[in-house]
Input
Amino acid sequence: MKNIIEKIKKRKRINKDEALKLYDLELLELGELADAIRKEKFGKKSYFNINRHINPTNVCKDTCKFCAYSATRKNPNPYTFSIDEIVDTAKKAYKNGAKEVHIVSAHNPNVGLNWYFDAFKYIKKECPGIHVKALTAAEIHFLATEYNKSYEEIIDLMVLNGVDSMPGGGAEIFAEEVRDKICKGKVSSAQWLEIHKLWHKQGKKSNATMLFGHIESRADRIDHMERLRTLQDETGGFNTFIPLVYQRKNNYLKVEKFLTAKEILKTYAIARIFLDNIPHIKAYWATSTINLALLAQEFGCDDLDGTIQKESIQSAAGAASANGLELNDFIALIKNSGFIPVERDSLYNELKVY
Ligand code: V47
Output
């Protein structure tokens, strides 16, 4: 362990085995190592953006066991917004100061390809300058398969219709054995990485998530991060790594043992240390709870996502994120926890330091 700590202090890259060993370190010692890196990069700044999450349909062809959002499973209330409803939602948010719409849908085979793209096109027209973060690699894979298109063709349509960056969803956990148990049939790990690579090749940015706290092992988490680190070495296209804490309600995954706050904080800290080439680590408060997200600022996380306004995926599984957070409350929480709230745009340009 001494050698690993030395390596980290000298800012040398650690390998998979060393990263796994870090879980054995005492929490506060691990936290200090991660915090030192965070401080070097961002001081006491904590980033957030004023964004609006829109989840336009919950009708899904896939059957991921961890999902409580999909209407084909435990949630008996299918919905699909019209293009007008999606655009109106974006317009309202834009008028109220949102700089980004984060649009993630289920894989709905009934609406047609244009439904997905028209929404982006009209949002861009009605809300000049708004950043459209939309279509996870899982959605891109679904659209390509459903409409017999290549990934490149779908990506061209994204660029043409005004998508600015890609959210990190659909990554779940890359380890194939676990992936098969939790979301068999959806985009594979290799395909997820290939899609992000193609997107990065266009000079565009994306995020990467990891769903943890279900049936994966610690080694699976490190393996997941390593696959991301390898792609990032090649493309440099990931802005942010987002470990999503598994929410347990209303779904079909049988999980016996849930994560402790200690395990969540250790995972954030290890991500900060191991992912030496991904600039931002996001404590997505919708899944960690806002209280733990505030603490995570001391364990390597420099980003708390945003005000969200409305969220349907994690809240369906029990998260307290359905109605987002008020901007003033969000800022006060960051300030009161000893950090400097910095409003950023979607590409991490600083807009306002509070
Ligand atoms: O990939 C589904 C997750 C993701 C559950 O890029 C669950 O800034 C926890 O893409 N418990 C979609 N998570 C959300 C997403 C996202 C979210 C926040 C920020 C960004 C970003 C992207 O939601 C899916 C899946 O892993 N999810 N069910 C659940 N029970």
